[in-house]
Amino acid sequence: MYRKKQKQKNKIIIAITCIGIVIALVISLQLNRNTTMVETIFKDVSMFFNKVIMYPFTTLNNEKGQNQSESYLIQKNVNESLEKEVQELKEALELNKTLTEYDPVNATILSRNKSYWFNNLTIDKGSKDGIEVDMAVITKQGLIGKISKVYRNSSEIKLITSDDVNYKISVAIKTNDSDNYAILNGYDSKIGLIKVSGVDKTAIVEKGDTVVTSGLGGKFPRGIYIGVVEKIESDKYNLSKTLHIKTSQDFNNIHYVTVLKEKSE
After folding, report:
1. Using one digit for the tens of pLDDT, what is the confidence trace for 130-164?
2. Where are the chain's structural domains?
3. CATH fold group of domain 72-160+253-262
4. How far is CA 27 from each of CA 48, 71, 255, rounded to the nearest angstrom?
5. Residue 231's closest CA among 265, 264, 199, 256?
6. Which backbone phi and psi does 65 adopt, to 5 degrees?
7. How far apart are CA 185 and CA 195, in angstroms?
8. What number does CATH give the domain 169-246?
9. By percentage, how much of the chain surpasses pLDDT 70?
10. Residues forming beta bridges with residue 123, ordered by sequence position
11. Residues 6+ apart with CB under 8 A from 7
12. Using an 8 Å Cβ cutoff, are 183 and 195 in contact?
């Protein structure tokens, strides 16, 4: 009997104590006054246990909020963009070591017309740097175009993705047996593939065959990588074949290029 009364008494004391603590906490939060040492300790202890209990949820929410915050996304995009540009610059410098037959001129993209995004771009090198019309322009991923206009301090590049019907580059499709020559002259923006026409209908061309520049005519060197055959079609008269070429270059993100200038004798 005594034990039961003692337990009830203890419960009452604990309940009163808890109520008192809650009241004291409410008052301390509502009143604009200096907190006592007891209140400070109580708050610290409460916050500690609250953090321990809520840590998994807080971490998840913070990460989620961080990923969705505008400032974080901007900073993340900036960092990723800078990393890509640094990598492009490294690749351009490494490319110079392999182009022993030419005087490579590294250039930075100055501008790009949004209305003709896949047609032209402007670089910061011009006639004072020895740039001339029809010089090949490449990246580590291969050919991206050729010089179409030259000014003293800048030049324009006509990309191989251009929709200009008069834009043509002689190419070679490298097969197991021999090279088949054709003309690069188009871009299918719907499927993102370069078009090569004029392939002999008897030519044995397969998906995955490599396409490079032929070196025939103009200032284009031979053997610059363009891409691989992705799709093969016959024209409506079955007189020749049209190839669709997949390149390794991301034409949406080009920051640095290399112009192939012939070495002066």
Report:
1. 999 999 999 988 999 999 999 999 999 999 999 88
2. 2-25+37-68, 72-160+253-262, 169-246
3. Thrombin, subunit H (2.40.10)
4. 21, 38, 62
5. 199
6. -65, -35
7. 6
8. 2.40.10.350
9. 61
10. 109, 155
11. none
12. no
| Residues 110/154, Cβ–Cβ less than 8 Å | yes
Whether pTM > 0.70 for this model: the answer is: no
Return the pLDDT at 210. Answer: 93
Model confidence pLDDT, tens digit, residues 211-223? 999 988 766 788 8
Three-state SS for the chain is CHHHHHHHHHHHHHHHHHHHHHHHHHHHHHCCCCCCHHHHHHHHHHHHHHHHHHHHHHHHHHHHHHHHCHHHHHHHHHHHHHHHHHHHHHHHHHHHHHCCCEEEEEEEEEECCHHHCCCEEEECCCHHHCCCCCCEEEECCEEEEEEEEECCCCEEEEECCCCCCCCCEEEEEECCCCEEEEEEEEEECCCCEEEEEEEECCCCCCCCCEEEECCCCCCCCCCCEEEEEEEEEECCCCCEEEEEEECCCCCCCCCEEEEEEECCC
The tens digit of pLDDT for each residue in 162-182 reads: 988 888 899 999 987 778 999
Cβ neighbours of 133 (radius 10 Å): 14
Mind listing the pLDDT tens digit for each residue in 191-242?
999 999 989 888 889 999 999 999 887 667 888 899 999 999 988 788 899 9
CB 174 within 8 A of CB 209: yes
CA distance 233 to 242: 5
CA distance 30 to 152: 73
Tell me if domain 72-160+253-262 and domain 169-246 are identical in fold: yes
Q: Decide if pLDDT at 50 tops 60.
A: no
